[in-house]
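lol ok so funny story. i was supposed to be doing the assay writeup but got distracted and ended up predicting the structure for this chain instead. priorities right. anyway since i did it might as well share w the group, maybe its usefull for someone
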Amino acid sequence: MRLLRRVLVIPLLFALAAGAVACGEERNTDVVRIGVNDLALPHWDVYKKKAAEQGIAVEFVNFTDYNQPNPALNQRRIDLNKFQHVRYLANYNVRNNDTLVPVGATEIFPLTLYSRKHKSVAEIPKGGQITLSNNPANQVRPLLGLAAAGLIVLKGGASWDSKIEDVDTGASTISLKTIDPTLTAQSLESVDAAFVDDTFARPAGLTKNEVIFTDDPERPELEQYINVFAARAEDKDNPKLLALARLYHDPEVEAAVRAETGYQGIFKTNDPADLQATLADLETKFRK
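and the output, tada:
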């Protein structure tokens, strides 16, 4: 899933369809606004062009605050967003009593542990330190990966209910430090290893040469980590929004995404109803 920087600034609006929108200007309802966190990537230019060929005008809102895209969607400042996986969306909905839903799959990314000090997990010394996101929605997958790699022990055994508080520090060989996800790449200068999201790994110059552990993103239970386009529940059947979600898998768009340096995603085309069922199951679990 691609993470966002927490900064106390108003998210910048990049109006790609018809120029920048002035403050206070009335919203053009014929234009679909999509919230993203990686507008600088070239594939969005290709995406916008393909949308125009289908008669759909698109504007992008580029957010740098991890907490803003979903509230912006709820508040109708945007019509779609693409930045999160299903599990994160479920966690957000439960915590905020919201009803946002996935309307299209994009891709899934392998869980990636990087190191600039070691060539393998086995080289991490006892007492070594590993950093990961401080967002609870993005912690269980790294925890399960570390448990599988033999670096930590989870009280009660590893499960999808595991939390960072369940780490048995006495029985584990390494220590964990949770930090803002935007800082994980930089932390590699001072820690033994770090889980770095794809969004930040590429700008930081991280490559496969620094990867010391990955999981298998094709495992069925990892469907909850498929990244999605999200919309308001009332718009889940909106044909224009569904068309824009599908457009991500246009051959030209996919080719542009694949061509970007360091891209490691696996494209997914799960049906929206399937994604929504996964979301509902997770929300039920999180409410318990």
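The chain is about 25% helix and 20% strand. The first strand starts at residue 12 and ends at 14.
back to the writeup now i swear
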